[in-house]
Amino acid sequence: MCVGCGACSVATSGAIPVTIGRFGSYEANLTGVSSENLALGSRVCPWSDESKNEDVIAAEVFPDAHESHDVLGRFMSAYTGRVGPQEDVLQSSSGGLTSWVAVKLLERGDVDGVIHVGPSDNALFAYTVSYSQEELRSKRKSMYYSTSFADALMSVKGDGMTYAFIGVPCFVRSARALCDEIPELKSQMKFFLGLVCGHLKSDSFAELLAWQTGVAPDDLKTVDFRVKNPGRPASRYDFGALAKGDSEMALKPTASLIGGNWGHGVFQLNACNYCDDIFAETADVAFGDAWLTEFEADWRGTNVIVNRNSTIEEILRDANETGEIDVAPIGAEAAATTQSGNFRHRRIGLAVRLADDIAAGKWVPRKRVRPGYTGVTRQRIRLIRKRREISAQSHPLFLRAKREGSLQNFLSSIDPLISDYKKVERGSLLVRASRRIKRMVK
After folding, report:
1. In the prediction, which pLDDT does 89 show?
2. Does pLDDT of 91 surpass 70?
3. Domains, the chain, with CATH or none
4. 242: part of which helix (H) or strand (E)?
5. Exposed site from 113, 145, 307, 373, fewest CB < 10 Å?
6. How far apart are CA 394 and CA 304, in angstroms?
7. Burial class for 120, CB neighbours closer than 10 Å (0-12, 13-18, 19+)
8. Who's near 11: CB < 8 A, 6+ residues apart?
9. In angstroms, rounded to a whole number, what is the distance separating the alpha carbons of residues 234 and 239?
10. pLDDT of the residue at 28
């Protein structure tokens, strides 16, 4: 269940190494680690029963966030919107407000630097530290890639400077836990910006999509996971891959590529089967896509924002008044609805997966979701299990395809699994449509 965040490595000063495994994702190596360091690592691991969960952390760090919602967690306010300048929107994955807030924190002097994922010399993407607005702006957009913040945090620890940290829910939770263990780091980490996360991917995700555009893994220089297209809705973006020695990206609609459908869970990390945090509940503010009908048609993209911090609240309101950004309040239920698919995976799906594992005699982490099948249709249960099978099989199948140098081998192996998923999905959609019609008739 390791996501390779690197918290255990930072906590133990490297006694627990975190490196890329054979399936293209960071993993902690516990071989020969002392019981003392194992205990320390467990206290900062987001999947360990020895670490504080989201509810406990949020109660400690957000005493002024009096509102509470099952999906959003504690919060002060919720908004939808985007940055004002068209150029900034085009250079961002969604509404551009994640990087905009980070830049504002730098501009105002609230922090000296921002710890975030960006392009890297040693990998396509890695955690890095930006100290200027220009540097930060040059590293925008979503990067669905396996990363670890261990080296980045170790490089800034004790340097006397202050930072904002950007990460997915489990990374923010583990970084918060690290601050409890290392007071020096706690004094430096001033803001935590969270990213709504469907699930984490291995490095193979970028390689598979690029290979389908004609760029083989060994020739891949960089990728753009979300190229906006003015002729399509916000969710119908392109994927771009740049080969070494080329100057122009090869583009294809993401939806046309095997693995491009997020619901199939291709290359999902196993740990994501056990996550119940949708809106980064331990972050000062969380940003995601506003997947609502009224916004999806706008190709520019729109953010949903869940805020828990008074300083960020001031920044958002002031900028909205001057027209620098365009945000509007949204109700908690509507904000939660923007991530309805995520809810089905992290709450309904989690209940089923936990129940399946317990029935199989496996250990499972203690979660805020009760294991069981109550209220879940047979079609939904089958869909949850099929997705899990696709995720598990995709890693070794792609490793074999790379060794053989054959993309077709992977596609022909994964296609039957995805086809089975689609058959079950069609049945599940029919059931939901039937129920909706019955409710309307009543």
Report:
1. 62
2. no
3. 7-201+269-340 (3.40.640), 204-263 (no CATH), 341-441 (no CATH)
4. strand 238-243
5. 373
6. 31
7. middle
8. 40, 41, 43, 44, 178, 181, 182
9. 13
10. 97
